[in-house]
Design brief:
The protein has about 675 residues and is an all-alpha fold. Helices cover about 75% and strands about 0% of the residues. It contains 30 helices and two strands. The chain has helices at about 20-30, 40-60, 65-85, 90-95, 105-125, 125-130, 135-160, 160-175, 190-200, 205-230, 230-245, 250-265, 270-285, 290-300, 315-320, 325-355, 370-390, 395-410, 420-455, 455-480, 490-510, 515-525, 525-530, 535-550, 560-565, 570-580, 585-595, 605-630, 640-650, 655-685, and strands spanning about 100, 105. It is a multi-pass membrane protein.
Length: about 675
């Protein structure tokens, strides 16, 4: 990478500008593209948003009302707010429809209808349970209206891809008898269809909505308030102190701060624009190209949803699907997340060494003790939250304790005191950020309901495993002599199944938010992986990782696009570089699928297996970084990089034999490279 000339300019700011960060999020995240409301309508919507946050906060600490009431309150409010805050499209922008308070009258009607059709269920709950399977006319009308409202709300807040997928499943549920082959099913009457999706807990009001209404909202709110009260700034300052002075300092600050900040944000875009608004200009100042600076931030930020303790909405839904405590998910995610950040950090370091890029100026670096003295109170809420989870309490009680600590410390901390207005804005912003995931849960609930009604999960799993098995039998003779588990017939079958699932995750993740994608794939893809002997937690984390990988995979790589916008760089080039930097994230899921010991909590765990797979994977990730960068101690050409790349893949593969074989290839290549580096100054001097 050719070094940019270093231009001495004024110091790069290391102070977060929350207003600027929120504006950038709205620019690059469709889920935050809200209307700007003023006057009485703006104040009314603000009150409803804050009331929703306060209701969720209260229920986290003091218990929820009956589930059918709690879910109805949440969904009805979310749908109403979406219609009031998100425009319908061109007709809305052109002002073709009469408005009331700046909001089209039709959207007021949709908001009112949302509340009405959702409230109908708990109001008639005692009688409704006797009509499941035999809905009356009112049930059919209200259920149909709710499905249509969910589709439109999803389109407004997330785009067209997810509603199209939901529509495909609706048509499949109603007309599946017309589908040829193994996917055919007898079909469902309209009454049974509406009953399944609207009147039971296996459709719209199923596990996804329940988890979002009960767990996810609280952690979104915690992340927003914690950032507002200074925790995000403290993380950035700590990362700058730790890594800023070393070669490529701002890039290493980007990796470390994004790992820390991502652990509370659970959003790749929020992570990118918040930390990237500081780190990307700093990287460009010391000589990195804009596309590389943006790629570093995007690759690091895309790890937010895999980094404990707050891993985004999908992790909480995973606990319900697997029936395990949230602490189990946290423990399982620690090592794979570390591998992702190790892979990014190694390449960042090698790029800096190859290009001679220095660290940050001393004048730009915060001091350790003043940073700790000023920021230590802001980390207390996170300690309280994690401690509550570790002690075995529910996630929503942990969130309640964390939010309470944020409020108390934020209001009394003399070094970074929040005003009541800022606290109000935090509650309002937290509710806004939770709207899209709420309607996504309802929309995907429709998909899950159809899958349950038709048995599509079994049919799709059968198709995938059959195709993988047939292809594996064909190519097995060509790989039978390789000394890796992958080369066995079962290993190849599993590899092909995982590959098919991974490609599906990446393709679908290009247009579907992670949470929605995970729910769909957990229902239709995870069973196929589990059938081949992969433990459920490994199977679910596998699809979760590959759904997230879409944030870095061109052409739709939202984190890279946001970073490119900050850097003023080419989005596609930024995305390709980000994918290269995050390559470990694309390989590690295969490792824990074959060797679940990496996840710590998987069945059959032993310390020996854990150490072997973790150490060999870490060494392989480092070797992969060298191969992709083309530099270790001195530049290397493809004659060295190609075998090094193959060797790194062997080392990443679980098992002692492939690790030793890979090491046998890596050591001579790195030795020659080291001797070459030592000889270069002598040759120059001679």
């Amino acid at each position: 990478m050719r070094r940019r000339p270093v231009v001495e300019t004024e110091s790069v700011s290391t102070t977060l500008d929350h207003t600027k960060a929120e504006a950038l999020e709205r620019q690059y995240d469709q889920e935050l593209n809200f209307r700007t409301l003023h006057g009485w309508a703006g104040r009314a919507v603000s009150v409803v948003l804050v009331s929703l946050s306060l209701y969720q906060y209260w229920t986290a600490g003091f218990g929820v009302p009956p589930e059918h009431w709690h879910n109805a309150i949440y969904l009805g409010t979310v749908l109403a707010l979406i219609f009031l805050l998100f425009g319908a499209g061109r007709s809305d922008r052109q002002g073709l429809i009469p408005r009331l308070g700046g909001i089209p009258l039709t959207d007021w009607l949709f908001a009112a209808a949302s509340v009405a059709v959702v409230a109908y269920l708990p109001l008639d709950f005692d009688q409704l349970t006797f009509r499941i399977g035999v809905p009356n006319t009112t049930d059919l009308v209200t259920g149909t209206i709710l499905i249509l409202l969910i589709l439109e709300a999803t389109r407004r807040s997330m785009g067209i891809v997810l509603p199209i997928i939901v529509l495909v499943f609706i048509l499949y549920g109603l007309f599946g008898y017309l589908v040829p082959g193994v996917l055919a099913h007898p079909g469902a009457s309209f009454g049974n269809f509406i009953s399944q999706l609207y009147m039971t807990q296996e459709g719209i009001f199923g596990i996804p909505l329940k988890v979002v209404a009960t767990f996810v909202f609280h952690f979104v709110l915690f992340g927003v308030i914690a950032t507002k009260m200074g925790l995000g700034q403290f993380f950035i300052d700590l990362a700058t102190v730790a890594a800023g002075r070393y070669p490529g300092g701002p890039a290493k600050v980007s990796v470390l701060s994004s790992a820390l900040f991502g652990s509370i944000s659970g959003s790749s875009i929020a992570n990118t624009v918040t930390t990237g608004s500081l780190t990307i200009p700093a990287m460009m100042k010391i000589g990195y190209r804009g596309s590389f600076a943006g790629a570093v931030e995007a690759a690091a930020s895309a790890g937010g949803q895999i980094t404990p303790p707050i891993m985004g909405a999908a992790a909480f839904i995973m606990t319900e699907f697997l029936g395990v405590p949230y602490t189990t998910i946290i423990l399982a995610a620690i090592v794979p997340a570390a591998m992702h950040y190790l892979g990014v950090l190694v390449q960042v370091h090698l790029e800096a060494k190859r290009s001679g890029i220095r660290g940050m100026e001393e004048s730009d670096l915060p001091r350790l003790w003043p940073t700790l003295r000023r920021g230590w109170p802001t980390v207390l809420p996170l300690i309280i939250l994690v401690g509550t989870i570790i002690r075995g309490y529910t996630p929503y009680l942990a969130a309640f304790n964390g939010i309470t600590a944020c409020i108390v410390i934020g209001l009394i901390n003399p070094m970074n005191r929040m005003t009541l207005r800022e606290l109000w804005d935090a509650f309002e912003t937290g509710a806004k950020y939770a709207l899209a995931v709420g309607v996504a849960a309802a929309a995907v609930g429709i998909v899950v309901g159809v899958i349950t009604l038709t048995g599509a999960a079994f049919r799709l799993s059968f198709m995938v495993t059959q195709a993988a098995g047939t292809l594996a039998a064909t190519i097995h003779p060509f790989f039978a002599l390789l000394p890796v588990e992958l080369a066995s017939l079962n290993g190849i079958t599993l590899f092909l199944t995982l590959l098919f699932v991974a490609l599906t995750c990446i393709a679908m993740g290009a247009g579907i938010p992670t949470t929605a994608l995970y729910i769909v794939l957990a229902a239709i893809a995870a069973p196929a992986v589990e059938q081949l002997g992969v433990p459920p937690i490994a199977a679910h984390l596998f699809i979760f990782y590959y759904g997230l990988l879409a944030d870095l995979t061109p052409p739709v790589c939202v984190a890279a696009y946001a970073a490119a916008g900050i850097a003023g760089a080419n989005p596609f080039r930024t995305g390709l570089t980000a994918f290269r930097l995050g390559s470990a994230k694309a390989l590690v899921p295969f490792v824990f699928a074959y060797s679940p010991a990496m996840l710590i909590v998987a069945p059959g765990f032993t310390v020996g297996d854990f150490l072997l797979v973790t150490l060999s994977c870490a060494l392989g990730v480092c070797a992969l970084g060298v191969a992709l960068t083309g530099y270790a101690f001195a530049p290397m050409g493809w004659l060295a990089r190609a075998p090094l790349l193959a060797a790194s893949l062997l080392m990443i593969s679980p098992g002692l034999t492939p690790t030793l074989l890979g090491a046998a290839i890596v050591v001579p290549i790195l030795t020659v490279n080291y001797l070459s580096a030592r000889g270069r100054p002598q040759a120059a001097s001679g």
